[in-house]
Structure formats: structure tokens, C-alpha cells
Amino acid sequence: MLNAIHHVALIASDYERSKRFYSETLGLPIIREVWREARRSWKCDLQVGSSQIELFSFPEAPPRPSWPEACGLRHLAFEVDRLDPIIQRLDDAGVTVEPVRIDEHTGRRFTFFADPDGLPLELYER
């Protein structure tokens, strides 16, 4: 039986920029950061509730299309207590946030924005 999502792994085109985005702009605590010499790659584990984001740097990683939507992972969604303070924090950091929408099935508010590599991210109000 599957209990929970342990982590989601992301590869950044600019590791330091993405690490700042996830840790400072989004406010995710860094659990650990390690340099993996054999792969010439950084790995940063960030806490998201009881789950984690593993942020990697790999030299010369090819871009992955996000637009138009391609098969595979569509987006990463974060549950939040209230959208408005997070949207304000993103606006203050210069991050473009789409207009808030209402989930027609649950009545919950949600919105989308993108990380520095264009990965679609969602905020979903509890």
C-alpha cells in the first residue's frame, strides 16, 4: 500500500537561482545540501510538510517542455491554508501569478505560477 508522496525530484537549469526560489521565495526549509562529485551535481532536499522536493543540478540537462502541455508530469501543487498571503509574497518577489480560479468540483480556490525553469506550480487552498 502506498502511504504518501515522499519526494518530487526537480532538475534546475540554474541551481543557485532555483535554490533561492524554492527556499527564499517559497519559504521551504532546506533539510540538507550535498555536492555529488561523481555526478558533478548538487542535491538540495527541501521540506514541504511531510514530503520533500529534491532539487538537482546536472550539467547540460536538456530542457523539458511545459507549454504546450506535454505528456508526463503536468504540474506540482502545494496545499496552502490561504492563497492571498502567498500570492502577495510571490507578487513582491516579481513572480507572475495567474488569476485565482475556483475548482468547479470542490469549490476550492487555486492559482498557477511557474518556477525559474517554467515548471508549472499550483497553489490550492485548503
Account of the protein in words:
This protein has 126 residues and is of the alpha/beta class. The chain has helices at 15-25, 83-92; strands at 7-12, 30-36, 41-48, 51-57, 76-80, 101-102, 109-114, 120-125. The protein folds into 2 domains: 1-62, 2,3-Dihydroxybiphenyl 1,2-Dioxygenase, domain 1; 63-126, 2,3-Dihydroxybiphenyl 1,2-Dioxygenase, domain 1 (Roll), CATH 3.10.180. Strands 1-4-3-2 form a 4-stranded mixed sheet, with helices on one face. β7 (109-114) and β8 (120-125) form a beta hairpin. The protein is globular, with a radius of gyration of 15 Å. The two termini are 25 Å apart.
Write the layout of secondary structure elements.
Elements: E1 7-12, H1 15-25, E2 30-36, E3 41-48, E4 51-57, E5 76-80, H2 83-92, E6 101-102, E7 109-114, E8 120-125
Parallel strand pairs: 1-4, 5-8
Antiparallel strand pairs: 2-3, 3-4, 6-7, 7-8
What's this model, at a glance?
With 126 residues, the protein is α/β, with parallel strands linked by helices. It contains two helices and eight strands, in the order βαββββαβββ.
